[in-house]
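Hi R.,

Here's the chain you asked about this morning:
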Amino acid sequence: MTEPGGTPATTPIGSRVAAEGYVEMVCFKHGPPQLQGVELEWTVHHADDPYRPLDATQLSKALGAHAPATLVPGSPQLPLGRGALVTVEPGGQVEISGSPSTSVTRLIEDTAADAAELTSLLATAGLIPGEHGLDAFRPPRRILTVPRYAAMERAFARLGPHGPRMMCSTAGLQICLDAGEADQTATRWRALHDLGPTLVALFANSRRRTGDDTGWASARTEATFGTCAPFTEPPPLDGDPAAAWARMAMEAPVLCLRRGDNWDAPAGLTFGAWADGALPGDSPTYADLDYHLSTLFPPVRPRGYLEVRYLDTQAGDGWIAPTVLLTALMSDAAVIDRAMAAAEPAAGRWFPAAREGLDDKLVLQAARDVVELGIEVLDRTGIGPELLGEVATRLNRIVDDTQRRRAS
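And here is the predicted structure, written out as tokens:
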């Protein structure tokens, strides 16, 4: 096994400096922005009682040969009909992720077909996908027993209640976009963050937790940001994003030390310290570094492309509107500049947006302008006029309903 750039995965990393250089190289890949992807995640519930705990055996029976090995050891994990793979998160949340596409229309069609197939599979076992970004009914409960999640659960539990919630009770919509050419990447990175509070508020739907009102429009965002702050919070945006991300990755705690059956890492061990020799006789390899990067959960995660992670999952086909909107807003440099200007009143207002949603005055102002611009440029995604009209109607309805409620 060889890593990008020809480095063997088993090669020991000699220093933090070498590790940072590797992260900069693999996490931000440059080229014309052409591809987009989407990953859909849901909590899973019993159709007759959403409060009833999920049983791993029942979920594995429903997924059959599509189940991942983390749920059913030795499973072939066959793709769904349009090519998406099914994965399962620690609390039994299911996720589908297909191949990226140069066509937004094809991406939507394929993802919708695979989502429908997954829903049908769940129904055979009396299960249904949840409709919110946070389990509104049950406390967090881990059903996967693999070493990764056991170690992460113990590490997060030391930091407070949000880690187990993030792992076992949250469900997100992830939109993936190219980082762009080298001279575009910093602007695209900033734009996705500047748009974040506005989009979090526009699509927030996770107010309830274990049957109670949390007081947060997106309690999923509250849980995610609170899991391992500051590494799960928005990063500083000044300077080179690749270098900043590499530094952050080095300063983040190691959650999984993949040695033996127990993967618990020493408390307080950072990857940078590990690379610089903090564990005598046990230097990390590049495979260890790749694994470490997979345990970082910021609002936007660079993985060679830019993975937007800050949106609540949406009920039914509700994921289409934010996917098309964000893709349109990132369609070219001129539109990105206009999108950043529209989002500017809410830029950086992550916590007000997550708590108050569109009831925050500045966030609502930005939402109106972002939606207006987004509708203007929806045709840049290449979707047909019928779907374009449906998306525009849905976006306008979100803003109009908020304004009517505030005026009443």
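One quick note: The radius of gyration is 21 Å.

Cheers,
M.
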